[in-house]
Amino acid sequence: MSVPTTAAPPAAPHHGPPQGFLWKYVFSLDHKVIGKQYLGLALVAVCTGMALSWLMRIHLAYPNLVIPGLGRLSPNGAPGGVMTPEYYLSLMTMHGTIMVFFVLTTAPFAGFGNFVLPIQIGAEDMAFPRFNMMSFWVTFVAFLVLVSAFFVHDGPPISGWTAYAPLSAVGKSAGPGQGTGQLLWAISIAIFCVGQLLGSLNFVATTLDLRTKGMTLARMPYATWAWFITSVIGLIAFSILLPACILLILDHVAGTSFFIPSGLVISDALQPHTGGSPLLWQHLFWFFGHPEVYIAILPGFGIVSQILPAFARKPLLGPRVMITCMAAIAFLSYTVWGHHMFLSGMNPFSATLFSVPTLIITIPATIITLLWIGTLYGGKLHFTTAMLFCIGFVSVFVSGGISGFFLAQPSIDVYLHGTYFVVGHFHFVMGVAAMFGIFAGTYYWFPKMFGRMMNETLGKIHFVLTFVGVYCVFMPMHYLGLHGDVRRYSAFTDEYMKGDIPLHRFITIAALFTGAVQLLFLYNLARSRFRGAPAPDNPWQATTLEWTTSSPPPFDNFGGHHPVVTHGPNEYGVQGQAGDYVMQNSPEQRPAGA
Amino acid sequence: MSVRVERMTTPARTGVWVGIAAIVLMVAAFTGALIVRRTEADWIHFRLPPIIYINTLVLLASSATLERARARLAAGSHWLAITLGLGLVFVVGQVLAWRNLAGQGLFLATSPSSAFFYVLTALHGLHLLGGVAALAYLLGRVRRVQGVAGALDAATLYWHFMGVLWLYLLLLLTLQL
Amino acid sequence: MGKVFAVLLTIITIVSAAIFIRHTWWMPPDISLHGVRIDHQMAETMTASGILFVLAQLVLAGFVWQYGDRKDGRTVKRFPGGATPMVAFASILVGAEVLTLTLVGSKVWAGIYQSPPDSGSLRIDVQAEQFAFYFRYAGADGAFGGTHPDLIDDANGNFFGLDPANDTTARDDIVAGSLVIPVNQPVLLTMHAKDVGHAFYVPELRIQQDFVPGLVIPLHFTATHTGKFELVCTQLCGLGHYNMRAYVEVKTPEEFTQWLKDQAAQQ
Ligand code: HEA
Ligand code: HEA
Ligand code: CUA
Ligand SMILES: [Cu+2]
Fold first, then answer.
1. With contacts defined as CB-CB under 8 Å, which chain B residues touch A251?
2. For residue A242, which residues of chain B lie inside 8 Å, CB to CB?
3. Taking CB atoms and an 8 Å limit, are A484 and C209 in contact across chains?
4. How confident is the model at residue A15 (pLDDT cuts 50, 70, 90)?
């Protein structure tokens, strides 16, 4: 094992290289393997979620289409291959849940974070490798529990990813899927919270305690900063959602009434519950839910801030401002949850109270966007696929962020709440921007993870088609919303919405096209994994520590020695020994004039 | 083995602090829910089963014995074993308290007040069992290896927190139920 | 590659913006007293953020077009002035915009949701249930009968759980499946749900409000145009959510009185 060199390294976890397949690949304690496992889980989840979105889109545009095989998969939900309206809602619930929890929390945060963060700070592993391993497997179990809802008699729940009570709490009298399916949903999310709490705890302790010599907070790479901030948000958010889920589960199985008020008559039966508060669920859920969306996007901010300078060959503009703004967003994210509840029947006075911090968030968000755009100014842009996805990220984040600016005003949300405008908004920021962060991270770190380069030509085709595709899918949703088309509708049978069905068809075709383009990405992944060109240690001439070690890195990341950090991560566009950049652990002096 | 450097914190200590933060938030969420729910008409007021005051003493005593265990680590691990025993006694005491309530006809679903009693004490109990597991692990290691001081430090911090959390819950439950 | 992207982004930006500007899809004409102020707020926000949207996208496209690596050995340029002036400028610009919109917008909001209903309002009791709305008018005595959840019996038309046998005020209550209201008269709805959460949304009326089980939520507005409009449910309430709707019929006062009489006679 590692022999201490001159610089005594911080306490590192004491576990040797694993022996045997099971310990090496399954119950591995190695953060790199765990990171890959998370990414693998996210990949399975995203493919499931994407397939669900195809089925949803097909149903919205062509409700009577027979989908071959679907009837076999779900005889109740799609008799003869034609989806029922309630099956649409089931798929939608699962789509939203899978995407938000099992893709956008796992991939950008737990996936890339696990793989990259310890290396970027020069550590051998996470602070608590056992917790880390448990975190993944707990999350995995949560995924299995969720997916098992497809196979129970009544199918998955139909109450959306927000699971508003009492629809979600009273059990199967409220509709198909609201019995076992909804219970599985709540259990799955509760388990998921435990997994993410373990993960977040690890990230915080690792970043605080395991930084190598010279890795001061000021020299920490931006992605690490983002993951660190995200883990703090995650710790708070999941600590709130877990109790909420426990109470929901109890309402389901133990007959308590935390969220179920008195005097409900459901399916002609007076419910035995008394005194619960449906708004309590909404408050708890959104107190988690809004920070959760920043959990999804902040790692993307970090990844973009890391990758843009590397391919613009110049330092990130205003790095300290960037970190301050990310922290400000994280802080503010806890003060705005009520913007999802303007029309929920809470005290209307509080609408203004929640609207103001929501609008204030656009200030750090604007600054961050401008710092990225300013970083591009005067650079020598190398349009690698990773870079293209980062630039695309900026564009779609602006689009989605600006539609958030409409929703943040109660006086406009009166009209837009509950319409496709909201769906357009969150798909741009979350379904596309955060997803672009994942893509950028994949194209950027794939060589480090697998020691092979990804195919750039395929990558660029993938980018261009996806970029155009997502604008065709999600921009029109804003138009639908402006016209008053309601979200979570299985069909558009109202007079004023009927006229919009052609636009829905357009969206469906664009979505199927965009989905098909993702097959290129999957092919590229699979092919490059086995046939890609061998990757050098530092293919992108980047400065951070992960590029100082071999691709892929050895078991203990730095082959027994401990890097000593002498520079910040931002030394691009300077005269260094290696070229126009200086690595973080380079012994050379900071060049003059930089 | 890599060598430890003297730092302000160890990962174990940081980890416990972060864990404490998470638990505090969780309890805050429950407290919030309790306060919202308390205003409804179906809230039944009841007296806490007296045994929980004895449990409280047991738990406080265990904090003291743990401090002693830490001070006398070199002399042997029996104080650690005593602490662990007290922890288990507390858990058993909790189970007795639940049975007492059930005997009065107060079940989980009877009233939100009883529901909160069960949920909060169960939550605390589960976390306490985590602490018991940590003590048991340390007890196993302290005999065989040296250098568990850091881990014992962290476990002690957690254990004291369990005591503080219990006092808070006791206060909350006596005032609100 | 940079140039391809820049061109694509420019096209996307222009097409997206053009569709907004030309109102190809837009809000239906407003028929409410308060709606103009919402439409005004919408237009202001659309203009301000539309300009920022186009600017941000086009500058991004422009930089990508301009600064692609041409391998001519050019050194990189710093952003003029560094981050500070830009940050200050952005904070002030966006800060001012946020401030103005909040000042105006919170008045618009308060005017709808925080103002007391007009004392001469027509009060209508609304119940939402899976998957229908029911509307109750007080009838000749001007008083609403009490509701009893245990008496609710949809099969016999007792949607609200009225008790006409013992409760005299309940006897003349008029229950309808459409929301019929007189034009230009303030209307006060008292909204409650029978089973799960629902919502009340009439795009033309520029109004939306959730029904929350266990709560009675007041909502008031005034319609200024006669006609027949759709009321839809915007809160996910179960399998028939998409099918939960009713008509809002705005009638002249005479027509409305006549309608009330007809209803009373039928019941
Ligand atoms: C990654 C996820 C993500 C992100 C980053 C955001 C970011 C923001 N969101 Fe969004 N939001 C969601 C995910 C996200 N949201 C989801 C999932 C929902 C729906 C949940 C559901 O109901 O199912 C939702 C719903 C939602 C609502 C509730 C709507 C409703 O139900 O009625 C609101 C209202 O305030 C809102 C506001 C905002 C704002 C102001 C931001 C801001 O942070 C955006 C800031 C960014 C910018 C503004 C762009 C950059 C700036 C410029 C280019 C400068 C110039 C621009 C201006 C000054 C306008 N969001
Ligand atoms: C991350 C979040 C995410 C993502 C990516 C998507 C992707 C898509 N979504 Fe989804 N959607 C949600 C989150 C997301 N959605 C949520 C939260 C809801 C609300 C549910 C509710 O109301 O309860 C929703 C609801 C929702 C609706 C509204 C349903 C309704 O209100 O009736 C629709 C309708 O068209 C839709 C469509 C689509 C389409 C066509 C895609 C896609 O097809 C677009 C194409 C896909 C991609 C561009 C990504 C592919 C990525 C990869 C293949 C690789 C990833 C790599 C690694 C993991 C390494 N979604
Ligand atoms: Cu009622 Cu949706
Ligand atoms: Cu939000």
1. none
2. 26
3. no
4. low
The answer to whether C171 touches C210, Cβ cutoff 8 Å, is no
Helix (H) or strand (E) holding C249: strand C245-251
C-alpha A466/C-alpha A435 separation (Å) is 11
Q: Mind listing the pLDDT tens digit for each residue in C12-71? A: 999 999 999 999 999 999 999 999 999 999 999 999 999 999 999 999 999 999 998 776
Q: Which atom of ligand 3 is nearest to the CA of C237?
A: 2
Q: What pLDDT is attached to residue C71? A: 66
> What's residue A232's pLDDT?
95
Q: Is A4 left (phi over 0), alpha (psi -120 to 50) or beta?
A: beta
Start-to-end C-alpha separation, chain B: 53
Closest atom of ligand 1 to C53 CA is 53
The distance of A256 to chain B (nearest Cα, Å) reads 4
Q: Which positions in chain A touch C230 (Cβ < 8 Å)? A: 494-496
Pick from C196, C252, C258: nearest CA to C227 = C252
Indicate the DSSP class of residue C191: E
In ligand 3, the atom with minimum distance to the C-alpha of C244 is 1
Preferred mutation among A124, A216, A231, A240 to probe B, highest tally of B CBs within 10 A: A240
Alpha carbon distances (Å) from A338 to A59, A240, A354, A410, A419: 32, 15, 6, 11, 18
What kind and span of H or E run contains C251? strand C245-251
Question: What whole-number distance in Å separates Cα of residue C263 and Cα of residue C267?
Answer: 6
Interchain contact, B11 vs A209, CB within 8 Å: yes
The pLDDT score that the predictor gives to residue A488 is 96
Chains touching chain A at 3 or more Cβ pairs under 8 angstroms?
Answer: B, C
Token pair in block for residue C244: 């939960």
pLDDT band at residue B145, thresholds of 50, 70 and 90? low
> Nearest residue on chain C to A572, judged by CA atoms?
C76
Task: Output the pLDDT for position A588.
Answer: 77
| Global pTM value | 0.94
Following DSSP, what letter does each residue of A253-278 receive, concatenated? HT---SS--TT-EETTEE----S--H
Checking ipTM against 0.85, whether it exceeds it is yes
Which chains touch C (3+ CB pairs under 8 A)?
A
Q: What angle is formed at CA B31 by the lines to CA B27 and CA B33, rounded to 5 degrees?
A: 115
C212 vs A479: CB contact, 8 Å cut-off? Answer: no
**Cβ neighbours of residue A81 under 8 Å, at least 6 residues apart?**
A66, A67, A68, A69, A70, A71
Name the residues around ion ligand 4, CB cutoff 5 A: A 290
Model pLDDT for residues A298-319, shown as the tens digit of each residue: 999 999 999 999 999 999 999 9
Q: Which residues of C touch A170 (CB under 8 A)?
A: 196
* Neighbour count for residue C193 (Cβ, 10 Å): 28
Question: Mutate which of B4, B13, B26, B107 to test chain A, going by most A C-beta atoms within 10 A?
Answer: B26
Among C64, C114, C234, beta carbon nearest to A486: C234
Candidates B1, B6, B9, B18, partner chain A, best to mutate (most A CBs within 10 A): B18
| Residue of B1, B19, B119 with shortest CB distance to A1 | B1
Which candidate, C71, C55, C9, C66, places its Cα nearest to that of A377?
C66
Residue holding tokens 């729940």? A157
For residue C71, the 8-state DSSP code is: S
> How far, CA to CA in Å, does B46 sit from each of A113, B38, B99?
49, 13, 15
- The alpha carbon dihedral of A497, A500, A504, A507 has a sign of negative
Backbone region of residue A582 per phi and psi (left: phi > 0; alpha: psi in -120 to 50; beta: other values): beta
C-alpha of A413 from chain center: 25
**CA-CA-CA-CA torsion sign (C238, C239, C241, C247):** negative
